[in-house]
Amino acid sequence: MTSYLVTGASRGIGLEFIRQLSQDPNNTVIALVRNAAKSVYLQEISDLPNVHVVEGDVTSVEKMQKAAESVATITGGSLDYVIQNAGGIYGSDTSLADPSNDLSNLVDDLKGDFEVNAVSGVITTNAFLPLLRKGKAKKIILISSAIGDIQFTRTTGFAGIASYGAGKAALNFIAQKYAVELASEGFVVLPLSPGFVDTSSTKEGGQTQPSEEDIKKMQAVFDQWVKSQPDWDRKPLTVQDSVTKQLKVIAAVGPEDSGKLISQNGNTAWL
Ligand SMILES: NC(=O)c1ccc[n+]([C@@H]2O[C@H](COP(=O)([O-])OP(=O)(O)OC[C@H]3O[C@@H](n4cnc5c(N)ncnc54)[C@H](OP(=O)(O)O)[C@@H]3O)[C@@H](O)[C@H]2O)c1
């Protein structure tokens, strides 16, 4: 059996990782969620024989160490893959120099985004490292974003979602640090961007129609993002498509890729 732990598995991309990985009966798939009782979408598949649900909060050392104990019981003390997907935009999605943004709010966003997107990577990795060291695959995947890539920012001129971008940029650096430190043990540590993904089908409150105003704002953002990939069709990926592509990349990467931020396409085509 090959064991996978996916964090942030209650909905969105994390849930789809559980769906696709659990289709192979040779996989033991562990879904880490903050609250199992409230993870309604996961409940649709959590009674599959190879799916296990463990609770944990990726910002809590104590809870993640407890989660690692539970995972060890399920797997017999090892773990092959960890896909650290929990995270996201913590606060508002402003730029840094927007005069309408209160500085205290901005600082709160920076701290929150850093905690949930970067510090979480160290908490999760270290909590599970003893199990991963006993695993066969030795792959640590950190779901990141092109928004945290300096070259993407320079090419597109995109100043928005700044504190989230800073958190993911820090995660990319943390991944590189782990990559060099764990290389001699045969680990591959990969910051992986999932693309721009529509996760609205598992959003709390269901799918909502964006307002005219929202559509206008998104079009302006797309006008910038397309500069990084002129042939982009300006459409988000489906969550199924993104995860299928990411799983191919996860299977294919080797030591030469360790520490390098790449996309669901296995390169720097981010969209
Ligand atoms: N969607 C995109 O276009 C896109 C693009 C680039 C990168 N990403 C990255 O991909 C990942 C997944 O994104 P998504 O769009 O699927 O997000 P999502 O639908 O908002 O789901 C986020 C998941 O993370 C969990 N989570 C958040 N904070 C947590 C914590 N402290 N401890 C444990 N779990 C926590 C949430 O759990 P609860 O249900 O308990 O809240 C939820 O399961 C994120 O890291 C995001 O930054 C997404």
Automatic annotation (TrEMBL):
UniProt cross-references to CDD domains, sorted A to Z: carb_red_sniffer_like_SDR_c (cd05325)
Short name of any one Pfam family annotated for the protein: adh_short
Gene Ontology MF terms: oxidoreductase activity, acting on the CH-OH group of donors, NAD or NADP as acceptor
PANTHER family per UniProt: CHAIN DEHYDROGENASE (ATSC), PUTATIVE-RELATED (PTHR45458:SF3), SHORT-CHAIN DEHYDROGENASE/REDUCTASE SDR (PTHR45458)
Name of the molecule in the record: NAD(P)-binding protein
Record organism: Umbelopsis vinacea
Lineage of source species: Eukaryota, Fungi, Fungi incertae sedis, Mucoromycota, Mucoromycotina
